Amino acid sequence: METKIENLKKYCNSLTKYSRYKTREVYIGDIPLGGNNPIRIQSMTTTDTMNTEATVAQTIRMVEAGCEYVRITAPSINEAKNLENIKRELRKRGYNVPLIADIHFTPNAAELAARIVEKVRINPGNYVDKKKFELVEYTDEEYNAELGRIREKFVPLVRICKEYGTAMRIGTNHGSLSDRIMSRYGDTPLGMVESALEFLRICEDEGFHNIVLSMKASNPQVMVQAYRLLVNKMEAEGMNYPLHLGVTEAGGGEDGRIKSALGIGALLEDGLGDTIRVSLTEDPEFEAPVAIALANRYKGRENHQPIKLIDESPIDPFNYNKRKTFEVLAIGGSNVPRVVADYSDRKIKSQKDLEDIGYTYDEPSDKWFLSDTAADLIYLGKNFLPFDCPNGLKAIYDFEIWQKLGNIYNSYPIFDLTNYLNAGKKSDELNFVKINSEILKDEKIKLLKNDNTAVLIVETNNLHGMADQRRVLFELIQQDLHKPVIIKRDYDKISFENLQLYSSTDLGALLIDGLGDGVWLNVKDLTSNETESGFYVKSFIRKSESKEKVINRLLFNILQAARQRISKTEYIACPSCGRTLFDLQETTEMIRKRTEHLKGVKIAIMGCIVNGPGEMADADYGYVGSGVDKITLYREKNIVRRNIPTKNAVDELINLIKEDGKWVEP
Q1: Which of 62, 68, 242, 625 pairs as cysteine with 34 (C-beta 3.0–4.6 A)?
Q2: Which sign, positive or negative, has the C-alpha torsion 552, 553, 559, 565?
Q3: Is 220 exposed, middle or buried (0-12, 13-18, 19+ CB in 10 A)?
Q4: How far apart are the C-alpha atoms of 249 and 44, rounded to whole Å?
Q5: What CA–CA distance (Å, rounded) separates 228 from 232?
Q6: pLDDT digits (tens, 9 = 90+) for 156-182
Q7: CB count in 10 Å sphere of residue 332
Q8: pLDDT of 436 above 60
Q9: Phi, psi (rounded to 5 degrees) for 410
Q10: Any bridge partners for residue 639, and if so which?
Q11: What distance in Å separates the CA atoms of residue 286 and residue 289, rounded to the nearest whole number?
Q12: Residues 64, 284 contacting (CB under 8 angstroms)
């Protein structure tokens, strides 16, 4: 029987044995959530809620794409009233999908919607509290008085939900924590959790338990920490409400899928999550297939090979701390994680073959030029590089080949542990040693402790691979083996769509906990196809792109999403809804085309003000809809230009970036 994780750090059933965390069952219409039910799929309409026909048509497309619940915004009493027409028309057409009203600033709209639809979503930061970015020092008496005011405004909705059998999601958003919460807890996962628990305790006092909880953030690391802490706090108070998972404002395309998979997948790996919404800046029918692919991966996961049990986690799961390692030739230590390109099944014929991993050769000057996404290491296996390795790139050969090559510049061997310990010839500078959880049981691993040339390659063939590799890294921490670690994952016969999601989960879940000094993907038989449901999925592989180019881009995108290595502009883009005041997809693409060369700059693109200022506290610039064809620009969380006509707004954003000295010509 597994020794329980220390209660102060506990947030799931087990860190090594997969099982779903058991939550209470909540009925949303006729489709129950939590308990022993499967992970449910949902999304949100982007149409004007007052346009009944358009909302009904989009809802039907979403249901046919796999949505089991559909959320619709109700920003005012009029939209809340029209939910009745939408519901009636859907039922008339034979669609009984439960509807969820999304409420932010309007308690009266929530109270009306709760009498019509199967569930209401309220945001604690917006429902009663206000956000002005003011720091207010509260005494305990003043703070409790504020809680009393919240109770007075919130209890009527709770009682209506209880009377009508309506479920409720208490959905905290990192970007809309109230000034009151921020003043006491700061902009932290703890602040997010306490914001929800204040409302949850009021529900419990009223005997209302038909509740779902969420902790959304645009930063997957913050999002994961908040959900873990929420479970930890619920356990302490004897609660077990189901969890709605999502990374908010994830953006679109590859970036949105990677960010979403990283945050959602990291929690699913530990058995957390009862329903998923993937927030993409795309039509909502493209969200459900991504969520389905994430959820389906855990069917049968409990049948994995046993992993050595953990008595106590050696890391703090609620706060980020990078694992301490020493540096070996710019790997480990304070360096950003390194990227390995795998060319073991592709023979390199000329310098041009390295363009796929960020190296361009100029023959007249005999110089190499590196892109911001140039790989740091290239694994050649038994192949050979027919020219000198470029500066900045290290070549890795199987040790038998390397030993025959002689002393070639920037070339290093890779061994398994036994061969490494017995090898007569090694590099004096850098040696790569493959290990896994089985090898780690060998006492010989301790012989590496004082070896300052070894970098470990951690592999796994376990179905529960992330947990297996995490277990290896935990063991290294406990044994004070401060070797740099490159996390390597192997995939075979996999579609690109699934590779995106799986690798983002498997690598990202470790990276956001500070585990890993490098990443490596070995992929056999990469394809691009439809999902199992047959519903069309956007593919991001261009026919002209090689497997190596696709994987190199994927690895850099994962590192960016995990906030471990910034190689390009970052976009925090909301998925759009009925509140949106401009075409988000078109505008996001227009801004991306003109700014995507600004490495390290963060730009938030928000359809409305609901979460805008808060989510943009993590961005350098914000582009926010403030009226019909009107845009307000922010510098961080501060308004700098109001009500700019939409046709001029992108130019004005670029002018603002130029004023701050952050603009460079493409």
Answers
A1: 242
A2: positive
A3: buried
A4: 13
A5: 6
A6: 999 999 999 999 999 998 878 888 888
A7: 24
A8: yes
A9: 60, 35
A10: 634
A11: 6
A12: no
Alpha-helical regions (H) of 27-164: 52-65, 77-92, 107-113, 124-127, 140-164
Report how far residue 255's alpha carbon sits from residue 566's, in angstroms, rounded to the nearest whole number. Answer: 13
Give the C-alpha separation, 445 to 418, whole Å: 9
- DSSP sequence for 567-627: -S-EEEE----TT--S-HHHHHHHHHHHHTT-TT-EEEEESSSSSHHHHGGGSSEEEEEEE
CA distances (Å), 209 to each of 213, 241, 243, 271, 646, in order?
Answer: 11, 8, 13, 22, 45
Lookup result for tokens 């996390």? 487
Q: Could you tell me where the beta strands, DSSP code E, fall in 618-664?
A: 621-627, 630-635, 638-645
Predicted pLDDT at 133: 58
User: How confident is the model over 79-122, as pLDDT tens digits?
Assistant: 999 999 999 999 999 999 999 999 988 899 999 999 999 999 99
Name the amino acid, one letter, at 301: R
Q: Which two tokens stand for residue 550?
A: 């696709």
Rounded to an integer, what distance in angstroms lies between the CA atom of residue 190 and that of residue 456? 35
The residues, any chain, with a CB within 8 Å of residue 355's CB and separated by 6 or more, are none
Asked whether 16 and 550 are in contact (CB, 8 A), the reply is no
pLDDT single digits (tens) 501-511: 999 999 999 99
Around Cβ 464, how many Cβ atoms within 10 Å? 22
End-to-end CA distance of the chain: 59
Instruction: Look up residue 564 and give its two tokens.
Output: 């471990």
Q: How many helices (H) and strands (E) does the chain have?
A: 18, 25
- DSSP character string of 303-321: GSPP----SS-SS-TTS--
